[in-house]
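Hi F.,

I've been meaning to write this up properly since the lab meeting, where we talked about keeping a consistent format for the predictions we share between groups. The idea is simple: the sequence comes first, exactly as it goes in, then the structure tokens exactly as they come out, then a line or two of notes. No screenshots and no reformatting. I'm using this chain as the first example so we have something concrete to point to.
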Amino acid sequence: MNLTDPKYKDFALVKEMLETADVVANFDFDQMKPVAEMVQKTGKVFLTGEGSSRIFPAKSFMYGVFKRGLALAVATEGSFQAAEYDLSNWVVCGASNSGQTKEVIGLLKGLKDAGHQRLVGVTANAGTKIYDVTNETILLSCGKEDAVAATKSVVEQGLVYRAILCNLIQCCCAANKQEAGKLMKEIMTTEYDASIIEKLAAAPTLYFAGRNNGVAEELTLKTNEITRKKSDYLEGTYLLHGVEEVMRAGEACVLIDPFPSECQKIKELIEGRAGVYVVAISTEDTIFPTIKLPKLVGYEPFFQLVAGWNLLVQTGVALGVNLDKPERARKIGNEFVG
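Output, unedited:
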């Protein structure tokens, strides 16, 4: 996708996706030092939000923490369920792009009213309700989004959480942010093989599977908003544990950084027996058609996500979809009123 080709240039969604590269290149990792200090004192951080404001930001952070073996308790859940938990000893981070999300505001307000002193808000809109129910609020630099599908804000939310990690351990993300932005732009402006787009455009359902770092799950949601297709997220190894019974020939599956040891079995069961078209997004070649990504430590999930965006945009455009205006989906899923 790009802003010169007539089939892309008029969409706010494409513009906002491409702006993500500059958001990354200019991100201030030091702004999260106070929050990192809070987290270091408690040893516990709980990340909440709804939809895109939770899936990728929280799970990519968890993946980074676990992979590095950091002695930190980290968990995530939607805000309504989180309200049933005892979070009194946790740093609680609530992300709401609008700053008005009902579930998030309700949770944070309840905690603040109970005397909780470690509540952090993350929002793209200054002066919104989330400021009233937190002890510290991080204002995103990405600016307003006009498209319904959240994109650049999701990546910046992910960077906000990544910055907590980078202020707790030795990390090269801040030093590499200019290179990351450059590579992201290259990933997003790459035109993929026409046969891949044709297969995805023809598929009645798109499945997403692979590493559980928030990417596959977030792209499952974005599929609905961008291509108007049905989609399903197959967590972990779910793809190889029975779902082939209901898969149908002509459907498609996108693998996010698949485990090499699983690929042959996926080819046999999902592609061979179920007739599902399989494509991979990975830094390594696979036995499937593969969208190959560059390597840059700390930015792997971010590269996977923007490659998935590009794949979905090209598919949506091939289908003649108005990328900016879904018929039913709203920018604010459930707005706080009060």
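Notes:
The chain has a mean pLDDT of 95.
The beta strands are 44-49, 73-77, 91-95, 119-123, 136-139, 205-210, 230-234, 252-256, 277-282, 290-292.

If this format works for you, I'll send the rest the same way.

G.
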